[in-house]
Amino acid sequence: MPRPRAILVISAHWYINATAVTAMPRPRTIHDFYGFPHELYEMDYPAPGLPELAGEIADIVEPTWVGADVDSWGIDHGTWSVLAHAFPDADIPVVQLSINAEKPLDYHLDLGTRLAPLRERGVLIVGSGNIVHNLRAMSPGTPDAGFDWARRFDDAAHDLLAAAPADLVRLSEHPDYAAAVPTPDHFIPGLYFAGLLAASDTAASRLVDGYTYGSLSMSSYAA
């Protein structure tokens, strides 16, 4: 893969009542979790921002309004936990796009579709979440397995991403949706990925296929 000009991340952990993009030159590393090992709170991912990319995003998705966040957010753990492995030097500009909690699933799929031209401008787009994410149902005794309902839902998502990504929103009608997606924040980044696939008429390639604690899918895709 060529070195990206910048990385745009849609993280499950920036879930707010607006559509916004980080627009600061030096985003801070955010430790938005609790109860984890001390070492994680010392993690710093000092990647620069790219304020001008915020303007590009706002232009490319018009008439959808996208606000510029210059001081409230940064790089959350949904972003740095991935990029620290993929780009450990933290020398590529990183920008985050918030998930607007007030919008329906179709909105996010459409926005993902309209972000697609950024890929031709050297921007790597990453969706960070989980197709199946139910923390209340976790079973510590099954660290490497998935419950039947989790597997059914994850397999259904895989089939759609491979053949009809624009239909991923239909998973809200799946009989296991309530168990797999008790809140939509971790599911929605996948809709942005599905939108990118639909815009380019390509199929997803699954990089990781696995589960943990029964109720978390670790499936990862690329295109």
From TrEMBL:
**Which keywords has UniProt assigned to this entry?**
Dioxygenase, Metal-binding, Oxidoreductase, Zinc
Cofactor(s) recorded in Swiss-Prot or TrEMBL: Zn(2+)
Cross-referenced InterPro entries: Extradiol_dOase_DODA, Xdiol_dOase_suB
Q: Which GO terms describe its molecular function?
A: ferrous iron binding; oxidoreductase activity, acting on single donors with incorporation of molecular oxygen, incorporation of two atoms of oxygen; zinc ion binding
The record's SUPFAM superfamilies line, in alphabetical order, gives: LigB-like
Q: Name one Pfam family in it.
A: LigB
* Transmembrane intervals: none
Q: Where is the Extradiol ring-cleavage dioxygenase class III enzyme subunit B domain?
A: 3-200
Kindly give the NCBIfam families that the UniProt entry links to this protein.
PRK10628.1
As for family, the record states: Belongs to the DODA-type extradiol aromatic ring-opening dioxygenase family.
Which PANTHER family does this UniProt record tie to the protein?
4,5-DOPA DIOXYGENASE EXTRADIOL-LIKE PROTEIN
Q: What is this protein called?
A: Extradiol ring-cleavage dioxygenase, class III enzyme, subunit B
